[in-house]
């Protein structure tokens, strides 16, 4: 498992091949995501998986959300190209949602956001086992209010998109500072 954590890195859509990702692999990845911890075991993560022709629905939803941002917001050719290219280059795009079943003061929203992030990290570190790559993107216009996404429940909001696929990418260094510089020890 530590090797999968060490191998986790962002692989961007321009490096994805057109090889489809089998549904059984996606199921294994989503099962890994589902193993994440959550306060009160509420499991606040929800995912929408877009593949093949289903990615047209994602593009339509993105345009709808963008244009709902105000009268001056028009989904133009530039946005279609920018986001359409990433979606088309990706065999799979997963929309990541926070689902707040029981919002209350004893369960702050940040804890549920953290649980969703843990689910995404579980999925992300599991990609290595299947020789897949991916990355989490959070365009501001998509990551807005509860109920903003078409067909979302009033207690759901998008936290981003996860692009994934098989890839052919150069080995890029993953520069990380020493963990020892980020830890303070208190020992007795």
UniProtKB/TrEMBL annotation:
Residues 5-166 form the Nitroreductase domain. Keywords: Flavoprotein, FMN, NAD, NADP, Oxidoreductase. It comes from the Bacteria. Pfam families: Nitroreductase. The keyword Chloroplast does not apply. One of its GO terms (molecular function) is oxidoreductase activity. Its cofactor is FMN. The keyword Nucleotide-binding does not apply. InterPro entries: NAD(P)H_nitroreductase (IPR052530), Nitroreductase (IPR029479), Nitroreductase-like (IPR000415), YdjA-like (IPR026021). Belongs to the nitroreductase family. This is Nitroreductase.
